[in-house]
Amino acid sequence: MSLMKPVRTRFAPSPTGFLHVGGIRTALFAWLVAKQAGGKFVLRFEDTDQSREVEGARQHLIDSLHELGLDYDEGPDIGGPFAPYTQSERLDIYKQWAQKLVASGRAYADPYSQAEVQAFREEAQAAKKPFLYRNHRPENPPEWDGSQPLRFKSEPKAYQWHDKVMGDLSTGSEVIDDFILIKSDGFPTYNFAHIVDDHEMEITHVIRGQEFIASVPNYLNLYEALEIEPPIMATMPHILGADGNKKLSKRDGAKDVLDYTREGFLVDALVNFIASLGWNDGTEQEIFSRDELIAKFSLDRVGRSGAHFDERRLNWMNGHYIRELSLDDLYAKVEAYWPPESNEYDDSYKKQVLGLVQERLKFFAELPDLTKFFFVDLPVNPELISSHKQLKKLTQDEIKNLLEQANETLEASDFSVEDLTERLNKLLEASGQKPAVLFSLIRIATTQAPASPSLADTLAVLGKERSLQRLESHLASLQ
Ligand code: GLU
User: Fold this and answer.
1) Coil, strand, or helix at residue 281?
2) pLDDT for 373-382, tens place per residue?
3) Among the options 250, 392, 426, 434, which is catalytic?
4) Is residue 48 lining ligand 1, measured as CB closer than 6 Å?
5) pLDDT value at position 265?
C-alpha cells in the first residue's frame, strides 16, 4: 500500500552547469519532505546528454549541497542500496526495461532519418496541425538493434492527475505521443530514464521544476505500460525577478548559489530565504530555523504562481541572522573579509569595529566598505558635503566655524562614549544646529564616509588623536 512506503525523495540534477537558486530550492524542498518524514534524500546525476556536460559541474553540485547542509543519504559519491546513482552507469538497467517494452509490443525501432522526421514536422506545420509522431508510426518497424532510436508506442487517452503543488490537472489525448526512450547513441532520454530510476530507487515524491509538467501525461502513459505506480508529483513554480514577471537575471539569484556563501551570506539565512520562495506556513512568520522548516514545511502550502526573488529581502534576512550572532561568532566568520588595511590592527580593535557595524552589515563582503575608515585615513572628499541634502546649504564659513567648534569640543573630551555623547549634545545645543547637520558634518570630517555607526561610538573607537587629526586635515582642506 502506497501509504506505508517510507518516504524517499531525490534531487536529480544534470551536470550541465552551476547550481542556481531555483535548483537549490528544488533540492531543499525534496530534502525537507524527506527529513520531515524521517525518510531518505537521494542525489542522482542525470547525465544522459553527454554533449551538455560541463566540466566540474558534478563536484560543484556536491559542494553546493554540502555547503547548504542538504546532506543526502545515497548518491553518486557515497553509494547506497540502489547504486549506481549516475545514469550513464545504469545503461544496462534501461536496456532491460526497454526490452520489456519491446517484448510487450509497447516500444519499436524508429526507422526514419532525421530528415524524414523533419519532413513530417513541416507537413504538419503546413497543415496547421500539431506534429504527432504517432501519426507516422511505421507499419513494420525493423527489429531494434540499438542503432535506431527506440520509441514508446503510446496509447493516447485523456488524463486527470493530482499535482501536490499545482492541484488537479487534466489533459486530452492529443498531447500523448510516441516519444523516444533510447537514443541511437545508446543513452536513454530523460523521459525514460527518470521513470525507471525513480521506480528502481523507490522514490515516493518527484519534486521538480515546471519545465516537465507538460510531459506528465506522457509519463503517466508510460507508467501504465510499465505497470508502475506513479509517484506523488510536485511541480515547483518559476522563480521570477522582484519586479514582476521578467525572467530571473543573475542579480535576482540566477547565479551560482556558492557565490552567495562566498559573498558572506550565512547558510541558515540562505536556507530560510530559499524556503520562503513560494512557501509560507500560513502565518506572518518569516524567520524559520532549519528545525522549524523541517517541522512546518508542506508541499500543499507551496504557491502555484511564480515566486519573487527579492534580493533586498535576502539582504534583510541575512542581516537578521548576522545580528543574532554573538560578536565572537561573527568575528570568527568574517575573518576573510576585512580590508587589507586592517592587517596592522589587533583583534581587540577589529572586534570593536565589528561590534559597531554588526547592526547594519547585510553580508560580509560589505565589510571593507563599511569599515575601511577605521583603518586608514581616507582623502578628503568634498562631494560628501556638496551632495549632502542639508550640508550643501551651508556656506564655507559656516562649515569651518562648526568644525572649529567641534575641534574644541573634542579636544576637551576624554573620548569615552559617555563623555563624547554629553559634549556633542552640548555643542548641538550651543550651535543651534540640527543633529542631521552638525553630526553629519563631524562624521564626514572624521570618517570621509557617507555613513557610519553612532558618532560618539565611532569617535571613541577611532580614538582622540586620530579623530582630531582628521578633523584638522578637513579644516585645512577648506582654506
Ligand atoms: N535532470 C533534470 C534537470 O536537471 C531534473 C529533472 C527531475 O528532477 O526529474 O533538469
Assistant:
1) coil
2) 999 999 999 9
3) 250
4) no
5) 97
